[in-house]
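User: Here's a chain of 119 residues. Predict its fold as tokens.
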Amino acid sequence: MLTGTAPEPPAAPPDLTGLALSVARARKDYQACRYAELVSRLPRLLSQLDTACHRLIGDDRLRACALSADAYHVAAGFLLKTGDPGLAHVATDRSMTAALASQDPLRSARAAGSSPTPS
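Assistant: Prediction complete.
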């Protein structure tokens, strides 16, 4: 997903409640150092969120973008911890882009503050 793989269009509209639960789970997995679980679910979650951001409109789109910003924030942290600063920068950029699209100033500030620093 980070390298530009196009998501498959889903048959049903995105489920924002389910996506919110998945983002919360990804954050908990990251914080608890359950990286195998995180890696097994994160690519699909990012793809689903990307689809939601592009397919939804109005407040649902803003919420999807906010969730995407949070998920990419988790991805950036994980990639930085695992020694991939290049992809961490890509994830940080996508987190910031999604945060700005969400029109949520707090998410934008959090995404801006999470920029990976070079080693």
